[in-house]
Automatic annotation (TrEMBL):
Catalytic activity, reaction form: CDP-N,N-dimethylethanolamine + a 1,2-diacyl-sn-glycerol = a 1,2-diacyl-sn-glycero-3-phospho-N,N-dimethylethanolamine + CMP + H(+)
Origin: domain of life: Eukaryota
The keyword Oxidoreductase belongs to this UniProt entry's keyword annotation: no
Pathway listed: Phospholipid metabolism; phosphatidylcholine biosynthesis; phosphatidylcholine from phosphocholine: step 2/2
Name of the molecule in the record: diacylglycerol cholinephosphotransferase
Topology within the bilayer: Multi-pass membrane protein
GO CC annotations, alphabetized: endomembrane system; membrane
Originating species: Mycena rosella (Pink bonnet)
Keyword Transferase in record: yes
Length: 420
């Protein structure tokens, strides 16, 4: 029919969502709240509308960051943002989590649960991931630094692992501590603390903060800043998620009588794509500038995030359509050419051919951002079009079948009933 093959579309009929959430916080605190919160939404509101509304709030938060700190320097660069900004990010992220949690409940209320909802939900989550990395790094006063790059890699890796695990096991598994639940609430708390004390608070040494600088033996440890300590904790969290995800995948492969090592090869696409981006950032200084220390750092991260969203979007599509795992992405070639060009002083002892000055460098980065946006936008548009046409549904409209089996728009009437 278009982007998705006819065979893959037929497999949509066999798809059913499966998920496991072992978080006590979800079970005893958040889920009761979400169950109540979804009742505030009319049945005429489509689940995907709720999902997109949550992402729109994050876009608004991101826009306020660009307004008050357009060069992404935070307080290390002398930029003092108003404190209400961070409180608004805290509220915005909590609302995003809530909207993201109830869209599935709304889908079941309206009879619209299906593969399109999962595709749309994961697509929004993928975009939110990079945006929150940028916002959280600014709130932690990391700004233009390799810690921000490390945060981007760790967060994207966690998302990739979850998607990779779901592809092989057939279900979304959330443990007792997961990114979508506890991880998001942790960031919500970071925004709130920054709202009270400012980003520079996170430069306080962890021993100083805990008042352990006078404790024998303990005071021999490095007084690592709180923001660096948080990044170190995140690295261990990624390693924990890796072994947990592989344990679940291995169990599923053994049950199916398949190889337990072959799935590990499917981690290579993320390693390759992330390595290309880091290689580009690691270029030697030329023209008195490096990319990571310039105002182009945020557009670069956004382009990287869009390419990642495209990558995991194709993984989810492969999952819901029982299609082969996507190994290759043509955007790798574009980014690799740019990375090699930037590193020509190191590789060939000569200046770059394309990125010869700050203006050309900006043109390449913004062109990469534009191409990444168009590529991901095209993917989303074609996939939504194929699925909605095949299944006879709409993306942002609640639809029901009439007595003849024809899909019709529905809307609530004054007496609370629905009319066709």
């Amino acid at each position: 029919m278009g982007y998705i093959s006819a065979t893959a579309l037929d497999n949509l009929k066999k798809y059913s969502y499966k998920g496991v959430d072992k978080s006590p916080l979800s079970k005893y605190v958040l889920n009761p709240f979400w169950t109540w919160f979804v009742t505030l939404w009319p049945l005429s509101v489509a689940p995907n509308t709720i999902t997109l509304s949550g992402l729109s709030i994050v876009f608004l938060n991101f826009a306020t960051m660009l307004l008050y700190d357009p060069t992404y320097l935070a307080e290390k660069g002398g930029v003092i943002s108003p404190r209400w900004l961070y409180f608004s990010w805290s509220i915005g992220l909590f609302l995003y989590q809530s909207f993201d949690a109830i869209d599935g409940k709304q889908a079941r209320r309206t009879g619209m649960a299906g593969p399109l909802g999962e595709m749309f939900d994961h697509g929004c989550d993928a975009m939110n991931t990079t945006l929150e990395v940028i916002l959280a790094s600014q709130a932690l006063n990391l700004g233009r630094s390799w810690w921000t790059v490390a945060s981007q890699m760790a967060t994207l890796a966690a998302f990739y692992l979850t998607t990779w695990e779901e592809y092989h096991t057939g279900q979304l598994y959330l443990g007792v501590f997961s990114g979508p639940v506890e991880g998001i609430l942790l960031i919500v708390g970071i925004y709130a603390v920054t709202g009270f004390y400012g980003p520079s608070f996170w430069d306080t040494g962890i021993l100083t903060f805990l008042r352990l600088t006078d404790v024998p033996l303990v005071n021999q440890l490095p007084d690592m800043p709180l923001n660096d300590s948080f990044m170190t904790f995140s690295a261990f969290a990624v390693l924990f998620n890796l072994q947990a995800s592989y344990r679940n995948v291995r169990r599923a492969m053994l049950a199916a009588g398949k190889s337990t090592t072959q799935p590990l090869l499917l981690l290579l696409p993320f390693i390759v794509s992330a390595s290309i981006q880091v290689f580009w950032l690691m270029h030697p200084r030329y023209d008195n500038s490096v990319l990571i220390n310039s105002a182009l750092f945020v557009p670069f991260l956004c382009a990287w995030g869009l390419q990642f969203a495209h990558q995991v979007g194709r993984m989810i599509l492969a999952h819901v359509t029982s299609s082969p795992f996507p190994w290759w992405d043509w955007m790798w070639v574009w980014s690799l050419v740019a990375a090699v060009d930037a590193n020509l002083p190191l590789l060939a002892g000569r200046p770059p051919v394309i990125q010869t000055c700050e203006t050309n460098r900006a043109a390449v980065v913004y062109l990469t951002l534009a191409i990444s946006l168009v590529a991901y936008g095209r993917f989303c548009t074609l996939v939504i079009q194929d699925i909605t046409n095949f299944m006879g549904i709409a993306c942002f409209t609640v639809r029901k079948r009439d007595k003849d089996g024809v899909w019709q728009d529905t809307a609530p009437t004054s007496d609370g009933k629905k009319k066709l």
